[in-house]
């Protein structure tokens, strides 16, 4: 068998890890479709219910790298099973929650556990898959989150509205249970941890290239989310789409974003960093054109769907770049390095939403496209600098 081909065992492992990211993505994002039900049942405002979303993202961004750095010394097989079990327990507590405090606590725990599981899954894929297939498999793992947005979230929302929001978390706990049983038999038992203290893991940030690379996904994701955060008013007020069709447009957007993961895998093959800088220029052009296409329903929709195709183009390349840098400068920090891309994506979402809010408050919906395009160009510049530094080190 050729080294760069996937065996049956590799394919089953790839499916299992993707199932994990799908389950975690569903658990993370499904609350967005249930805010009204949660706020009514718990007697809190919509704004307070909305903090369950931001609280999850903040806990994910802060807790993931710290806990990943601490636990990476342990063997992955029992560690991942333990965290999947905690994930299931967190969703059960969410399902039983009768107060905002309990629900927020369970969501914070679930967020950190999900972040660590994502990092360990990425690291496992990097270690176990044939070298030539790493990029496509890691892109597939990221696709699990995208598919969760397209399929898991609507399903969970439908269950919550048909029954109650508690039932949705029972569903995510059940999905977690299925992932646990499969993982029990599929995850490799010989994957050891990496020796090194938490300070050894954090020392990776002493490398300027790591810090520089961290902000690449931050700015490209922020570029998209500056616009996507306000996609509903854009569709209604600018493109003239009836409210009853918004969910259909968002569903189609989700399907287009799946192609973004396929594109990410292609870009990551054979020196992806050199191609990524041009990808962000193309992204910026798409975001800029929305300013001009907003006057036409169909042209505007075309710009938005192209925006979806570019959304996750960064993921696989930067993920591999982080792990390669860790291998080069601090091998004991590989698991920690694998946590940085998902964390950067969450920071980018928060940054894009914040910048978009400022633009809308001080200008208009039209100006969002300019802000998004500028952020994408910043990502391109950062990628160019990273590429030049990387080439210099290899000489």
CATH superfamily of the largest domain, called what?
MFS general substrate transporter like domains
Question: What is the radius of gyration computed over CA atoms, rounded to a whole number of angstroms?
Answer: 20 Å
Instruction: Tally the structural domains.
Output: 2
CATH class categorisation of the largest domain: Mainly Alpha
Largest sheet: none
Q: What is the N-to-C succession of helices and strands? A: HHHHHHHHHHHHHHHHH
Structure keywords:
395 residues, mainly alpha, Growth Hormone, Chain: A, 2 domains, 0% strand
Describe it for me?
With 395 residues, this protein is mainly α. It folds into 2 domains: 1-193, Growth Hormone, Chain: A, CATH 1.20.1250; 196-395, MFS general substrate transporter like domains (Growth Hormone, Chain: A). The chain has helices at 8-29, 35-42, 46-71, 76-96, 100-128, 134-162, 165-186, 198-202, 208-228, 231-238, 246-268, 272-293, 297-310, 315-329, 334-338, 340-362, 368-394. α9 (208-228) crosses α16 (340-362). The longest helix is centred in the first third of the chain and has 29 residues, at 100-128. It is globular, with a radius of gyration of 20 Å. The chain starts with 7 loop residues before the first helix and ends with a helix. The mean pLDDT is 86.
